[in-house]
Amino acid sequence: MSLSAALWAANADLAQRALTHPFVSGLAAGTLPVDRFAGYVAQDAFFLEAFARAYALGAAHSDDRAGLDAFADLLVGVREELRLHTTYAGRWGIDLAEVEPLPATLAYTDFLLATAFRGDTALTCAAMVPCMRLYAFLGQSLAPEAAGAGDYAEWITTYADPAFEELAGTLEALLDGAPAHPELHRAYRRAMQLEVGFFDAAWSAG
Fold this sequence. Notes:
By secondary structure, the protein is an all-alpha fold. It has a single domain, classed as Heme Oxygenase, Chain A (Up-down Bundle). The protein has ten helices and no strands. It starts with a helix and ends with a helix.
């Protein structure tokens, strides 16, 4: 089993918590209150800007051309996500320039950037893979329900798209090139916990 597959399997409990979270269930059913989704979009846009910076740091610290190219491709992917959030913002009147990050958002972005600034690309990947793999998992799991998701169908189809799966696989391939180490396991687990905490905050903020 690859390192990324082993880490994902070791955190299946948190993946299931995310999948059955009332925020995610509300998205799938199309019943999530719009104000909660709007708040999530604003927080997620703030988060994705930090995610993009972490990718840039990963590229800066890559010691070969393959890593540089992979992080560059991943940076393009997160820019596409940010464009989607800009679309959501226009649709629901969200001012992304005035976002006040919640504690859960700051906890996640601080963790990501502190990890990426260390310059250990394997550790950076371990901290970043959970976001990509979890969202691909959520999108693919919820895809059969997208028709009933109403205004949230686009969110599901975005993360169910094979192109997003490919990006997740690109980041996992970078991680799989590193030897297993307890610190990688801790970083992966922490990121998964922060993902669930992000949904908790989005649900509670409404």
